[in-house]
Amino acid sequence: MTRHLFAAVGCLVFTASFAAASTYGPSYIEPGDAGSSRDDAADVKNPTGSGTVSSISGSLSGNGGLLTQDGDFQDVFRIFVKDPFQFKIELSQMGTNVPDSMMFLFREDGRPVMASDNSGTDNFNPILDNNGGQFFDDVGIYYLAITSAPSQAQVEVDEALILLFNLTEFPFGTIAPAQNAEQFQWTDQWTTADPANSGDYFMFVDGVESLPVPGPASLALLGLAGLAGGRRRRR
User: Which has the higher per-residue pLDDT, 217 or 68?
Assistant: First the structure.
């Protein structure tokens, strides 16, 4: 799957449109495939392992029909929310050409927090806005997902599939989990996507900082652990 660097070199209009983004901090570009579950989510981190994350970009793509599909219709990112009261994720009008997408946020253990289908009746891009702590107020690790609509998060309970959000009844703005859904822990299950909803996306991010990266000491310990494991296997 081809990933696209969002900055278009030499395009003055494009650069001017996103000049404000550079004031927020580094941008994160999806490396390869972000994965579609908590287990294979991409860690959003800067090279230094610290500092603000200003944007996340990537792409959704695939083929097939509504019954059989082959592709990447869900991207999941592991993020560190430093300021939950300022937390907000919204798609840029420029740099995003997915016709219809959805966004979801889960706690580190998979419990649902918020979701969105459309920002409003005049803007069909989703938006996750915590609105000063309306949906959560805990600093920590969360999972952010963007999908090709109408692919929604679901869980299996007693051999039945249950949607974690009621985006059909509440298609506008940011919504909380469906009634009694906060007790469930999402892992990797999605409803079917529409392959026509493929393309690139660019998300503006507020309230998020880089996940830490292993320092030299941590890497050294990992190396020693690997050597010790190798010696044990040779005995």
Answer: 68
